[in-house]
Write a structure and sequence with these properties.
With 350 residues, this protein is α+β, with helices and mostly antiparallel strands. 29% of the residues lie in helices and 26% in strands. The protein has helices at residues 2-35, 65-77, 150-157, 218-225, 234-240, 268-273, 275-281, 297-307, 336-342; strands at 39-41, 45-52, 57-63, 82-83, 89-90, 94-102, 130-137, 144-149, 162-165, 174-176, 179-187, 196-202, 207-209, 249-252, 255-258, 287-291, 318-320, 331-333. The strands form four sheets. Strands 1, 4, 5, 6, 7 and 8 form a six-stranded mixed β-sheet that branches. The longest helix is centred in the N-terminal third of the chain and has 34 residues, at 2-35.
Length: 350
């Protein structure tokens, strides 16, 4: 009897050791698989969306949890790994998101050289790598998606070029003659003598071009954003005067979101007027409201009135820059009425 018990105990111990061995082997394998990739921007998918007020804006609930968990797990194994939670950029009609999973860096993001990782040296992705642009067309109150491979677009433009990043700190879209373009930076990849090249992605065609019909290049458009030619829009002016800080929401670059998840009892005015939109936005920063079409400042103000404390005057002592005023002069205003009297929205520029 004792021999039988001893034999069973040995079997149990061997089984336990085998299970433990498999567990650690799997963990080592998983760590190796995940830490191959040094730059992550997890891809998001639309879980739900809702248009509002004749398609002046659309609320979108983004889902990227599955890949985000993998990215965060990879960073736990190796702190050199860069995880970027890329947000979407939107224009009058299109919403664009980039996502990637790369085994080498497209730019230097580390401070200490001991934390350096290899630079991207090829426009052909290795196994498991991707760099994508998801383009969402909001025309006619629906959302239609196209996906472009950044590596492929660059190869088709010039087989010797390597993608680096999308130009402009605002990751902005530019529209001319009904076409929409996104600036992109590329280079020859021959460090340290690499030559930087700039291009423009035709959002509808998924092709890179050197210049738009007016002969403006990517560099010229970027420089315009940095000069006095750039017109501050409604939210730019409010944020420059610190009028929306200390609120439970953010409005920036035609993009609105709640700073954290909220309950049904909060933002009751917004919930009452736009229940479906609120049901999307209440989950917090992962859900966004994108303003579409030409700037409708009255619509933006009406939205702010639903989320600001009643009686709040965000226009007191606001200065409208000359480039953003109807008469080309700078104006100090004290009320919504004065602001609307002098501010020139994009619909009034035509």
């Amino acid at each position: 009897m004792k021999k039988i018990m001893k034999s069973k105990l040995v079997q149990v111990i061997l089984l336990a050791l085998t299970v433990i061995g498999f567990y650690f082997a799997y963990q080592a394998y998983r760590r190796h698989e995940l830490t191959q990739f040094v730059m992550w921007s997890p891809r998001a998918k639309i879980a739900s969306y809702e248009f509002m007020d004749d398609n002046k804006a659309v609320a979108i609930d983004w889902d990227r949890e599955s890949e985000l968990k993998e990215a965060e797990e990879a960073k736990k194994y190796d702190n050199r790994i860069k995880v970027e939670l890329s947000t979407a950029t939107n224009g009058e009609r299109f919403i664009v998101r980039q996502s990637y999973k790369l085994k080498s860096a497209t730019y230097k993001y580390w401070i200490l050289e001991e934390d350096a990782v290899p630079y991207l040296k090829s426009n052909i992705p290795e196994q498991g790598e991707y760099w994508l642009l998801d383009v969402y067309d909001t025309k006619d109150g629906t959302i239609k998606q196209k996906t472009y491979d950044v590596f492929q677009m660059v190869r088709e433009y010039n087989k010797d070029y390597i993608p680096r990043r999308f130009r402009g700190y605002k990751f902005y879209l530019y529209t001319e003659q009904g076409k929409t373009y996104l600036p992109i930076s590329m280079d020859t990849g021959q460090q340290p003598e690499s030559k930087t090249e700039n291009g423009l992605i035709d959002i509808e065609e998924g092709k890179i071009i050197a210049a738009i019909p007016s002969d403006k290049t990517s560099k010229e458009l970027y420089n315009k954003e940095e000069t006095t030619e750039h017109k501050d829009n409604f939210e730019d002016i409010l944020n420059q005067h610190d009028r929306l800080s200390n609120q439970n929401f953010t409005l920036v670059l035609s993009d609105f979101f709640l700073n954290k998840s909220v309950s049904n009892g909060q933002f009751s005015s917004l919930a009452d007027k736009y229940p479906k939109v609120f049901s999307i936005l209440k989950s917090g920063p992962s859900s966004r409201l994108y303003f579409l079409g030409k700037e409708d400042v009255r619509f933006k103000i009406s939205l702010l009135k639903l989320v600001l404390p009643e009686g709040t005057n965000i226009f007191k002592d606001i200065t409208i820059p000359a480039a953003s005023s109807k008469d080309g002069q700078e104006h100090l205003v004290q009320s919504e009425e004065e602001f609307l009297q002098y501010y020139k929205s994009s619909t009034e520029e035509e």
